[in-house]
# Entry
Amino acid sequence: MDHNKIQELISKYNEGVAEPSDVLQLEKLIADGVVELTQLHELAALDGGIDRVVSPTPSQETDRAFYKMLKARKKNRLKAIRFGGVADSLFSRWIAVSFLLVIGFMVGQVFQKQTEKSEVKVLADEVTSLKEMMMISLLENESATDRLKAVSLSEEIKGPSQKVTEALFKTLNEDPSVNVRLAALEALRGYSKSPAVREGLVKSIARQQSPLVQVALAELMAALQEKSSVKELKKVLEQKQTPKEVKQRIKESINVLI
Amino acid sequence: MEALSDNALMAKVRDGDPEKLGLLYERYKRSLLGFFIGLIREREVAEDLVQNTFMRILKYKHLFRADGDFRTWLFHIARNVKNDHYRKNKIIHENVEKWEEQIKDKTDSLASWQSEEEHRMLALALDKLPEEKREIILLSKYQEKKYKEIGEILGCSEGTVKVKVFRALQELKEVYRLVEKNM
# Structure
């Protein structure tokens, strides 16, 4: 269709005298990009009017809900982050934690002066959360030294979360290194006031193959006066593969408990 | 200081800085609310859907491609959120013949927010359009006439979008005249 005919069609439409067949033709020209909607004056004015229709503002409640959700996500993300065992990322994590600790300390100082204790608490929570994250990621490293570091890091965490104790139990029950297991046991000893931790320790007895860990657990049970462990300890005694010396030490622990 | 582009902000959200979503929320909360109210006509539900849209953005942030257009992605998600809301609440697409009855029942329409008479009439006319047409007009408004991007949201070509907008505006014109006559 030539230019003049197109203009004629547009004029007819704008004057409100277009036939249905004209409209169909116009649709095709619009689809092909030959005619723009802005050329159809009445529709363009209507469209412009729609653009000026005011959009409502969300209520403060919606704003609050959004920012609450964002804050919760941020917290979860920090907890959920898992790192690989790459040395440089490990280094950068140490840097990040140290940096945060320094910042935390500095901010803490300022805030203390301003007696805004709640803000400090939030920061302290974040630092704790970072420490937990560090610890859990270090526990996943191949190097036993790193895993030992992780266990010792857990001792710096006051009032550890369930995640930390779970990670320590996983280490105690599954870590290939006896030294790491023993360190995990030592760390868990610090949390033995918790009934869940004591229960986990009792359950762990049956999962240990290493004589050193078995003895350490038996002695810990005796120290904690955890009588519910006797049954599990007796099972170890009944195992043929349990070394004689170990049996002797376990018997001593059982005697203390009974 | 120059403000970061939507894409740059969303890329930061994707790469582990969720707080940047707050800036995007501030930029788009009104458009999204207008879009949802225009479609659903219930403010409370529309506000929930705004929240759900941003939650979904966080959930699927890894799917954001910085070479695309954030606004297009946002409205694509918003549309899915709206469709899911319909599915969940077993809302079927409106029967065109019943739109007048539906309008009477729901007073939370976009029109109720307009102070100027002309805008109010226009919003009222928009409310009376069938949903498909209302949606294309709202997308055209909030996507700033970027028909190619609207095509990406709706899964059709730019030309098809233009024709849909044309038809919707034509119907709006008719409805507007009726509204004007009855005012």
Remarks:
- The interface with chain A takes residues 16, 18-19, 21-22, 25, 29-31, 33-34, 37, 43, 47, 50-51, 54-55, 58, 110, 113-115, 118-119, 122-123, 126, 137, 140-141, 158-160, 162-163, 165-167, 169-170, 172-173, 176 of chain B (CB under 8 Å).
- Confidence is low (pLDDT under 50) at residues 95-99, 101-106 of chain B.
- The CA atoms of residues 13 and 121 of chain B lie 40 Å apart.
